């Protein structure tokens, strides 16, 4: 409870939202997506492989058979998109290099700007748009099954 002090009257309490309610409001930063209301194919996308730790090394170094550690630069052109996908079996870290990507999830949208980092964990199901006027790129480091 916060107290508001009015110099002409005595102090009066003001009710405020609990911090959990404020966090829940802040976590939803855009419109929610209806089931099936997401891109199903890539559009305006360029993927550049920057480095790879091969499967044999991943097995010897960290005991992870049949997987590679991959570093890529992914660029979405203006109006482009990355299709709906899950990271359930592909953990990753994304560093926004230039521009902005709008990430869509069933719970809403979040804009990721140059200089920001976010993760793709076992619970991540999302898609992306570039709604800006310039190409937007990110460095993506993830562990993928070897092909």
Please characterize this protein's 3D structure.
By secondary structure, the chain is mainly β. It has a single domain, classed as Jelly Rolls. The chain has helices at 19-27, 55-62, and strands at residues 2-4, 12-14, 43-53, 67-86, 92-98, 100-105, 108-113, 117-120, 125-129, 136-145. Strands 3, 4, 5, 6, 7, 8, 9 and 10 form an 8-stranded antiparallel β-sheet that branches. The chain has a two-stranded antiparallel ribbon with strand order 1-2. It is globular, with a radius of gyration of 21 Å.
Nutshell version of this structure?
Helix content is 12%, strand content 51%. By secondary structure, the chain is mainly β. The chain has a single domain, classed as Sandwich (Jelly Rolls), CATH 2.60.120.10.
CATH topology category name? Jelly Rolls
Report the total helices: 2
Distance linking N and C termini = 58 Å
Q: Using DSSP, what is the number of strands?
A: 10
Largest sheet: 8 strands, antiparallel
- Named at the architecture level, the CATH assignment is Sandwich
**CATH homology-level superfamily:** Jelly Rolls
Overall number of domains: 1
Categorize the overall geometry.
Answer: globular
């Amino acid at each position: 409870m916060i107290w508001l002090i009015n110099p002409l009257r005595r102090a009066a309490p003001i009710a405020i939202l609990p911090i959990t309610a404020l966090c829940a409001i802040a976590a939803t930063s855009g419109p929610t997506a209806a089931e099936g209301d997401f891109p199903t194919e890539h559009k305006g996308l360029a993927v550049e492989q920057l480095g790879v730790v091969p499967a044999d090394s991943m097995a010897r170094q960290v005991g992870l058979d049949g997987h590679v550690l991959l570093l890529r630069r992914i660029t979405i052109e203006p109006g482009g998109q990355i299709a709906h996908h899950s990271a359930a079996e592909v953990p990753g870290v994304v560093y926004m290099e230039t521009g902005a990507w709008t990430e869509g999830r069933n719970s809403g949208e979040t804009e990721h700007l140059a200089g920001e980092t976010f993760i793709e964990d076992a619970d991540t199901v999302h898609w992306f748009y570039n709604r800006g006027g310039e190409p937007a790129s990110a460095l993506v480091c993830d562990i993928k099954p070897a092909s």
